Amino acid sequence: MGKRSDSAVKLSIVVPVYQSADILPKLVEEVLAAVEPLGLADRFELLLVNDASPDQSWPVIQSLARSHAFIRGISLRRNFGQHNALMAGLNHVNGDFVVMMDDDLQHPPDAIGDLLDALEQGYDVCYTRYRHRRHALWKQVGSRFNDWVATRLLDKPKNLYLSSFKAMRKEITREIVKYDGPYAYLDGLILDVTRSITVVEIAHQPRYAGESNYTLRRLLSLWLKMATGFSVFPLRLATYAGFLLSALSFIMMAFFVIQKLLYPEIPRGWASLIATILFLGGMQTFFLGLIGEYLGRTYLKLNQKAQFVVGSTTWDRNSDEVS
C-alpha cells in the first residue's frame, strides 16, 4: 500500500489484540462502517497491537494491513499485558483524537462518534459506561471492587467508571507516553494528567467469538498496578494499622494488669497469647510484603525493565511505508 500522510490523520484507534484472529476481519469491517458517516474514512488509522498472541492474529493483521491503508499493525516480542500493549500503540498514533477499545467487539464501534462529540465539546477524555454489562458475575464483582479502590487511591470521581473503551485528545496522549515505567496503568496516568473528563452511555455487546482472556490473576495484577504504582495510601494504611495495633495493645495490657490485680486467681491465658502473636505476625508479614512490592517495582524501574518491545510492524518505521 502507498504512504499515508500523518498530518491528514484526525482519528487514531488503538486496539490491543490477543487470541482474536477470527474476530479481526469483522472488527475492521465494523470500524470502517462506523467512521464513514463521520467523514473520516480517509482521515483515520487503526492500530492493531498484537500482544504476542499464540494464535494467527499477527498473520491476519499483516493480511488486513495489505488490504487496507488505514491499518497499522504492531507485533510485540512477548506478552506484556493489555495496558502495556495500549502504551505501545499510543507511542505510534498520529491522530488529533485517540480512541482505545477492545478486540472482541463488546465495545460497539458505532459509539466512536459519541466519544468524538464529547471531545469536540472541549473535554480532554471521554469514558464509556455500559447500560447492561454482559461480563461474568465474578468479573462484575471484581470490577466494582476495582472501582471502589480507585475512588479511594486515585481520587477518582465516584460517578466515573474506568472503562477500557475511551477516547482522549492528542495532548493527553503526549503526556501519558512520557511514562516509561514497566507497570503501566492507563487510567491512573489519565487521572494524573487531567480531570476534564466526561462519560457517555453505550450498549455492551456480547463477545463476537471465543472467550474472555481476562482471568482473576490478571485482575489482581491490574489492581496491584493501581495500588502500588499510583498511590502511597497502602503504605499509609500500614502506618495507621501499626498505630491502632499499638494503641490496642496498650489498652489490652492495662486491662489484663488491672484484671490480674483484682482477680489474682485467674490463670495466665496461653490461647489468647498465641492468638495475639499469630495476628500480629500475620499483619507484619502482610505489610512487609506490601513494602517489598513497592521496592521491587522501584528496583525494576531503576533497572529499566521494558514497558514493551516492538518486534515488527506492518510499515517501515523509517519511511512510514506500509509493507
Automatic annotation (TrEMBL):
MF terms (GO), sorted A to Z: ribonuclease III activity; undecaprenyl-phosphate 4-deoxy-4-formamido-L-arabinose transferase activity
One Pfam short name: Glycos_transf_2
Class of this enzyme: hydrolase
Cellular component terms (Gene Ontology): plasma membrane
EC number: 3.1.26.3
SUPFAM superfamilies (UniProt xref): Nucleotide-diphospho-sugar transferases
One GO BP annotation of this record: lipopolysaccharide biosynthetic process
Keywords: Cell membrane, Glycosyltransferase, Hydrolase, Lipopolysaccharide biosynthesis, Membrane, Transferase, Transmembrane, Transmembrane helix
Transmembrane segments: 237-258, 270-295
Domain Glycosyltransferase 2-like: 12-174
InterPro entries: Glyco_trans_2-like, Glycosyltransferase_2, Nucleotide-diphossugar_trans
Record-given protein name: Ribonuclease III
Originating organism: Desulfosudis oleivorans (strain DSM 6200 / JCM 39069 / Hxd3)
Lineage start: Bacteria, Pseudomonadati, Thermodesulfobacteriota, Desulfobacteria, Desulfobacterales
